[in-house]
Amino acid sequence: MFLSQLKIIGFKSFALKTEIHFKEGLTAIIGPNGCGKSNIVDAIRWVLGEQKYSALRSSKMEDVIFNGTIKYPAKNVAEVTIIIENNKNILPMEYDEVSITRRLYRSGESEYLINGNKCRLKDIINLFLDTGMGSHAYSIIEQQMIHALLSDKRDDRKNIFDEAAGIMKYKDRKKEALQKLNANDSDLARVNDLILEIEKNVRSLKRQAAKANKYLSLEEEKKEKEIF
Ligand code: ATP
Predict the structure, then answer these.
(1) Which residues, 6+ apart, have CB-to-CB distance to 147 below 8 Å?
(2) Separation of alpha carbons 151 and 154, rounded Å
(3) Residue-wise pLDDT tens digits, 35-47
C-alpha cells in the first residue's frame, strides 16, 4: 500500500489545483521557508479526517480554506484528495486504488468521499484503523510527533506504539462502549428520579384512600344509627 497521488485545491496556500505524484522510493519537497511545504503534510492529515484545527496549525477550521492573496481571490471551498494504491489489500476494500476526498465550504458544511461516493467521517477513520495510516497514525510524522517520540512522557509515546501494535481499533470501540454506558447511566438516573417521584405520589394517594375509606365506614355507621 502506498500513497500515489495528492490533489489539492483551495486548501491553505494552494489557490490553484496542485497534483503531486509520489513514485516508488523517496520523494522530497524542497523550498524556502514559508512556501507551503508543511501545508502539504497538513493536507494529508486533513483529508484523513483530522478534526483539531490546532493540529493543522490553524486557529479555526475555516482557516484551511485559501484566504486570498494579491494575485488570487479567496476560495469558498477547500478540497483535498489522496489516492492510495491498495495493492496488498491492507485497506479492507476490493479496489486496488482507493481515493479519499474531503471538502470544506465556507458555510461550514463539509463532505467526505471514498472513491467518489459520499460517506461519513467515521467510515474514513474505520478504513484506516490499524493500517498505520490515519490522521493520528505514525505514517505522518511531523516535527510535533518527533517531539512526542522523544518525549519523557510515557503517554505521548504510548499512543504511537498502540497504533503500531494494532490495538487502536479496540481502544476506539472501548471508548464508544464507555460513552454508551455513560449515556445509559444518565438514563438510569432519570428513571430513578421518576420512581422516587411516583413513590411519593403513591404514599400520598394511600393516605387519601385510607381517609376516604374511614369516611365511608363512618358514613355507614351514621346511617345505621339514624335508622335505629
Ligand atoms: P517552514 O519551512 O517555515 O516551516 P513551510 O514551507 O512549511 O515553511 P508552510 O508553513 O507550509 O510553509 O506554509 C505557510 C504559508 O502558507 C504561509 O505563507 C501562509 O501565509 C500560507 N497559508 C496558510 N494558510 C493559508 C490560507 N488559508 N490561505 C492562504 N495562504 C495560507
Answers:
(1) none
(2) 8
(3) 999 899 999 999 9
